[in-house]
């Protein structure tokens, strides 16, 4: 009964909270786009015959996979401006952090997908006189990304959920808006339930997309 009264008190604020889903989705989509671009390049670099490039790629992975995302965000938003003497907007800092972090995870997903491509196709392409660049561009990379699509959607789901940490730097995402409503009405359960339901719905939609992709890929094989 108390919860029902609480929802009545914040009813007019619910659209304000739900509007934060737009910001959350922006983070997930933009970060995934840059993560996919950078991760693809990093996956190719990690399979390079050049030891220096492989070592640099490995160092990048170890840094961004071996440190907390919150620490990375804090360094980019709070520490980097101290060095460059110029403030970084919260949205830009969030996008940079999530893109760099996603790049590390996406690269391993795509690399695994590329390694799953049949070696026979590569050998045939070599016999036909295709260059290494052509083999990667036309055979290995397209099939590798196709094989990794379900995992890439799961990575996007992880970004979407982890984007809640941008609330600590004042970005008006779902969690931040829920906290604002909580502080205004001195109610915490109801606003957080609304935000949680929004996260849940978005994750379920993306999970459904991942399952559909997985089914289509399994049917085409």
What's the CATH topology name?
Answer: MetI-like fold
Instruction: Please name the fourth-level CATH homologous superfamily.
Output: MetI-like
- Write down the overall mean pLDDT: 87
What's the total count of β strands? 0
Shape: flat
Helix and strand run? HHHHHHHHHH
Percentage of residues assigned to helices: over 70%
Structure notes:
- The protein has helices at 2-10, 14-18, 20-46, 51-66, 69-84, 90-115, 119-127, 132-162, 174-185, 189-220.
- With 221 residues, the protein is mainly α.
- It has a single domain, classed as Orthogonal Bundle (MetI-like fold), CATH 1.10.3720.10.
- The model has no long low-confidence stretch (mean pLDDT 87).
Layout of SSEs?
Layout: H1 2-10, H2 14-18, H3 20-46, H4 51-66, H5 69-84, H6 90-115, H7 119-127, H8 132-162, H9 174-185, H10 189-220
Helix pairs in contact: 3-4, 3-6, 3-8, 3-9, 4-6, 5-6, 6-8, 7-8, 8-10, 9-10
Which key terms come to mind for this protein?
221 residues; MetI-like fold
In short:
This protein has 221 residues and is an all-alpha fold. The chain contains ten helices and no strands.
